[in-house]
Amino acid sequence: MTAAPSGPGRGAKRTAIACAGLAVGMVGLAFASVPLYNAFCKATGYDGTPRQGPALAASAARTDDSMVVHFDTNVAPGLSWKFVPEVSRVEAKLGETKTVFFRVQNVGSAPSAGVATFNVQPGLMGGYFVKIACFCFNEQTLQPGETLDVPVVFYVDPAVRDDSNTAHLSEMTLSYTYFASKNGQPVKATGAKSGSSETKGDF
Length: 203
Description:
It is a single-pass type II membrane protein. It is found in: Cell inner membrane. Belongs to the COX11/CtaG family. By secondary structure, the protein is α+β, with helices and mostly antiparallel strands. Helix content is about 20%, strand content about 40%. The longest helix has about 35 residues, at about 10-45.
C-alpha cells in the first residue's frame, strides 16, 4: 500500500486552501456587516438608534413618571417635500403606547420618492425609546401636490430610570430626515450644496 505523499507541497496546498477560505469569509463578513450592524443597533438602541419591539402590558406603564418627547423633521436637499409632525412634542408616561402622525407633501412639479432616516438625542436614550411601528425606511412615492399622513407608534421604556446615565433625563428628541431615494435607498442630491436643509410648515 502506497503512503499518501507528504511534505512541503502538501502543506502549501493546505495553506492556500485555508487562505482562500479566509478570504471568502472576509468578503462575506463585509457584505453582512451593514445589516448586522443595523440589526444590532435596533436591538440595543446603540448610537441613538431606537429599539424595535412589541408594546408593553398596560400594567407595566408608570403613571407617576413621564418623558417629554420632542419631534424634529427635516428634508435633505434634492427632495421637494414638506414634512411636519402633527404636534411638536408629547408627554408620554413611561411604558405607555403613544401614536404620533407626521405629514409629508410633495410640493414639487414632478413625482418623487423619499425615505426617512432617524435618530434619538441624547444618544443614550436610544436604548429606551422603543418603536412598535414606524414609517422610517419605507420608501414613499408622491405625485405633485400629494399629501400622506404616516404614523410612529412608540413607548419609553420604564427601565430608563434604572440606568444611572439616563435616570435624571426628562426630555428627549426624535429626529427624522427625508432623503430622495431610489429602490428604497437614499441617494445623494445632484447639484445641491453639502449638508441638509429643513422644509417645514404648518400641519
